[in-house]
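Example 3.2
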Amino acid sequence: MRAQKGPLKGLNIPLTLMAVLVVGAFLGFGTYDPSYAEEVFNEAMEWVFNYFKWYYIGVVAFFLLFAIFLLISRFGDLKLGDDDRPPEFSYFAWFSMLFGAGMGIGLLFWSIAEPIYHFQSNPFAQEGEGKAAAETAMRLTYFHWGLHPWAIYAIVALALAFFCYRKKLPLAIRSALYPLIGQRIYGPIGHAADLLAVFGTIFGVATSLGLGAVQINTGLNELVGLEVGLNYQLAIIACVTAIAVGSVISGVGRGVKILSQLNLILSGIILLFFLSFGPTLYLLSSFVQGVGDYLQNVVYLSFWTDSSGARDADEWQLNWTAFYWGWWIAWAPFVGMFIARISRGRTIREFVLGVLLVPTLLAIGWLTVFGGTGLYQELFGAGGLVDAVSEDETIALYYTIEAVAPGVIATLAAVIATVLIATYFVTSSDSATLVITMLLSVGNTEPPTAQRAFWGVGEGCVAAVLLVAGGLVALQAAAIIAALPFSLIMLLMCYALVRGLQDEKNRMQMDWQPGRRPPGAPHL
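Structure, written as tokens:
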């Protein structure tokens, strides 16, 4: 039931109160005793990793296979919405918002640091390999940022878009369970599904906001000498959260759309910088080779768990692959709902192709240009990046910028990179805020303005508390823990989506039979 007046006007009262209560309890716990909170987060993450690493590997591989099945299935020509409705956004705007919401800060944060980490140590490298180790490092980085996260997003987004725009149900996680539980989606089971999505969104996005604050702090230190420290990072969260709240209040068609397109433009500028001043031919060759190398190894890596311990890779896989898979699942409610919100009018085949392939190619290109430039400096240049990243992974981006360009140009590029991090911070925050308030209002695509502002501030508070209660480790732990229950909801969504698509195809075939009503005629 939605409140008709008061501060909760337009929101589902039980769902909103439960979300506020649990998030408030978390904030109080983290603020009252940060040291104990850090210990709890670490133990919880270790428990999840030790017992469910195999599950994360297997379930994410299944999600990718399921997305490919939808792409080539007989359901591909179904439209996400009425048959005569055109897409709401152009391809440029659609891809801009897809990429900005789905990757953003994390891709900037890890685009150089992660390949450098894998270059130093990974389960598949042999001692003294050098150039071969660099190729392996890029392959593993592509694996973590390629098809798998976008398959996770595509499944959630497609299920939501189909049941909302085709079946006229609310744009909420609960609606994807309709073929399984019917009208009970409006009861406690539906509330529980949406509540899990709210928690996954809050803690998954808080991880990215914390990473963004740390990275911006490093950028300002490089540019203006601002000290790197927790207090400054908390101040950065406060400032950028305020901007994000203003953006989300303006709506998807204005603030979110404009900032997403600005992200794509600034991303293009910084990519051109590296291509122009970096090892251009090496990067172009690495991109072509890297795509082929990724495609050759993606199946093996998708199912590899090192079950026999032959490569002694348990710790590496926990820290990297299992963490990423949990992080992407935690992000899935908010990215999936946001993608569904902007994808009305697309066919299923067009949708899956767009969501799987275009952002994956963009991510591989981005990682090649950034990570490849960093590795080139280690292999053929002055070096030093490995030591720098070992001390502080946030310095990798700025260290590489300084290594490839002269002073003034490097400074300008560093400014653009820092602004880009901030705009990705804003788009991640306002996209998540919009999704949270849509969930709490049971699918209202224009949720109350006051609630958007409230939850925008709330996300910043959660990110701040996680930074205080353990820094990056606490941020990672929150994402991993939040992902576990929502992955079960995703498995149910896959089954429900197939049933819903089969029913829709059968209905359309019945409609086309002689003597039946024409397609699109209302059901009485």
